Automatic annotation (TrEMBL):
Keywords: ATP-binding, Cytoplasm, Kinase, Nucleotide-binding, Transferase
Record InterPro entries: Acid_Pase_AS, His_Pase_clade-2, His_Pase_VIP1, His_PPase_superfam, VIP1_N
GO CC aspect terms: cytosol
EC numbers on record: 2.7.4.24
Broad class of the protein's primary localization: cytoplasm
Segments forming domain VIP1 N-terminal: 54-143
Renumbered residue ranges of the record's region Disordered: 1-49
Biased composition (Basic and acidic residues): 22-34
Family, per entry: Belongs to the histidine acid phosphatase family. VIP1 subfamily.
Keyword ATP-binding attributed: yes
PANTHER family: DIPHOSPHOINOSITOL PENTAKISPHOSPHATE KINASE, INOSITOL HEXAKISPHOSPHATE AND DIPHOSPHOINOSITOL-PENTAKISPHOSPHATE KINASE
Catalyzed reactions: 5-diphospho-1D-myo-inositol 1,2,3,4,6-pentakisphosphate + ATP + H(+) = 1,5-bis(diphospho)-1D-myo-inositol 2,3,4,6-tetrakisphosphate + ADP; 1D-myo-inositol hexakisphosphate + ATP = 1-diphospho-1D-myo-inositol 2,3,4,5,6-pentakisphosphate + ADP
Protein name: Inositol hexakisphosphate and diphosphoinositol-pentakisphosphate kinase
Length: 478
């Protein structure tokens, strides 16, 4: 991500979602209603730096900018106190020179059909905002050959594949040998079932060829039309015009895992019925495509991280095929939001907002640290009501065994003890510690001597208790 050169302090304004701002004029989208606000980027900008908000520009085709997930996420994003969201109008993107495009500090821009990516790249060069999704990488994402090359370079598992380029300038890249149950692409053999994908990632006419043992023919996938995503064809021979990737068919449980990243540390995943099965799209009573919950493994989370970073796309969708105990990436789509998930909308806006604040707050002189929010408290619904989810236990543990104290206290009055006290310099500090065997022997000798005298003369002047002297003797003898 590169940083913007924007500067200035910002104020604590109400959440703002702007649409259609150009030069000194802005229009604010308020619950679907546009009304004019002014002075956002007026001529007095220099004098009024204290009013400056961080502007996040949304530059994409209208179909994407006004989609349900985008609207949901932008509404949440502009709740950040210092963030204003500005949606670039499609008309401006398509018809105005980039010099006339609205200014922004952070740019969320992505290619889709009809989007002038070259212009967006020029705009980014001109204004140098912070990028959420890198624009140059979006050229690669449109070409399956480049996507696979990058995946391979990053050491990410993908199906074994070969490229058949039908380029008249490079005939050496077009060696196809076809027989009933396999193809040989530039020397590499693919047995049926195999998959044939147009090199353009925008072309969704992916074909899967069945072996004769399964009745032959092929399954032709296409962009969903109503309740269909593919259709069976009796055609068993591969396409002879256009350039394709051929790859081995990975046998899954019949579902595709769709992964959606928001930065390298966040990924949502869900499974859908593979269009390669019978082509009938599974829909619920509301007509929404049925999705199955998925928990990503640690390995898959690492793959998500790698994909997000390798393609420099903070918001990035890709497909995983779980087969033979491994997960293979078969498609990277770039910018893509999860649909119909409030949790994702919340999380996504939060991650993006925090990212923008973390990157830009310093130059805007906004003191910023990622806040601990109420939502972070792990309260989960369960069958027996909501409760706190135990996330971890941290313990510092020691054993309970303790060595019993080996101490004895004894009052002494006999001069022999005082002589010993003096002999070892006890009067200098008022206390004395005797540790050496010789010294302890001397204490033992005194104890023995006093005990002997006590035995001989019961009425002698020894004031120490006999029992104490015996204890002292026993301990020292031990
Ligand atoms: N190697 C493979 N093995 C098995 N199935 C595959 C393989 N490659 C693709 N598929 C199936 O074909 C479907 C379409 O393939 P892929 O995702 O590459 O094409 P796409 O048209 O770019 O898809 P999208 O609509 O996600 O952009 C996948 O969702 C998957 O079900
Ligand atoms: Mg796909």
């Amino acid at each position: 991500m590169s940083k913007s050169s924007g500067q200035g302090m910002c104020n604590r304004g109400p959440p703002r979602l702007l649409i259609g701002r150009e030069g000194g004029e802005s229009r604010e989208l308020d619950e679907g209603d546009m009304r004019s606000i002014s002075g956002h980027y007026g001529e007095d900008e220099e004098e009024d730096q204290s009013k400056r908000q961080i502007v996040v520009g949304i530059c994409s085709m209208m179909k994407k900018s006004t989609s349900k997930p985008m609207t949901e996420i932008l509404e949440r994003l502009c709740k950040f106190e210092y963030i204003t969201v500005d949606v670039f109008p499609e008309e401006v993107i398509l018809n105005e020179p980039v010099e006339k495009w609205p200014l922004c500090d952070c740019l969320i821009s992505f290619h889709s059909k009809g989007f002038p990516l070259d212009k967006a790249v020029n705009y980014a060069k001109l204004r140098n905002p912070l990028h959420i999704n890198d624009l140059n990488m979006q050229y690669f994402i449109q070409d399956r050959r480049e996507v696979y090359r990058i995946l391979q370079e990053e050491g990410i598992d993908l199906p074994r594949y070969a490229v058949l380029n039908r380029d008249p300038d490079r005939p050496e890249e077009c060696n196809l040998v076809e027989s009933e149950d396999h193809v040989e692409v530039n020397g590499e053999v693919f047995h049926k079932p195999f998959v044939e994908k147009p090199v353009s990632a925008e072309d969704h006419n992916v074909y899967i060829y069945y072996p004769t043992s399964a009745g032959g023919g092929s399954q032709r996938l296409f962009r969903k039309i109503g309740s269909r995503s593919s259709v069976y064809s009796p055609e068993s021979t591969v396409r002879k015009t256009g350039s394709y990737i051929y790859e081995e068919f990975m046998a899954t449980d019949g579902t595709d895992v769709k992964v959606y990243t928001v930065g390298p540390d966040y990924a949502h995943a869900e499974a859908r019925k593979s269009p390669a099965l019978d082509g009938k799209v599974e829909r619920d009573s509301e007509g929404k495509e049925i999705r199955y919950p998925v928990m990503l493994t640690a390995m898959e989370k690492l793959v998500a991280r790698k994909v997000c970073l390798a393609f420099k796309q903070t918001v990035c969708g890709f497909d995983l095929l779980r087969a033979n105990g491994h997960s293979f990436v078969c498609d990277v789509n770039g910018f893509s939001f999860v649909k119909n998930s409030m949790k994702y909308y919340d999380d996504c806006a939060k991650v993006l907002g925090n990212m923008v604040m973390r990157e830009l707050a310093p130059q805007f002189h906004i003191p910023w640290s990622i806040p601990m929010e109420a939502e972070d408290i792990p309260i989960v619904p369960t069958t027996s009501g909501t409760m706190m989810e135990l996330r971890c236990v941290i313990a510092v543990i020691r054993h309970g065994d303790r060595t019993p104290k080996q101490k004895m206290k004894m009052e002494v009055r006999n001069a022999l003890f005082f002589d010993l006290f003096e002999k070892y310099g006890g009067y200098k500090t008022g206390k004395l510690k005797l540790k050496k065997p010789k010294q302890l022997q001397e204490v033992l000798d005194i104890a023995r001597q006093l005990l002997a005298e006590l035995v001989l003369h019961n009425d002698c002047e020894i004031e120490e208790k006999k029992s104490k002297l015996e204890q002292l003797k026993t301990v020292l003898e031990m």
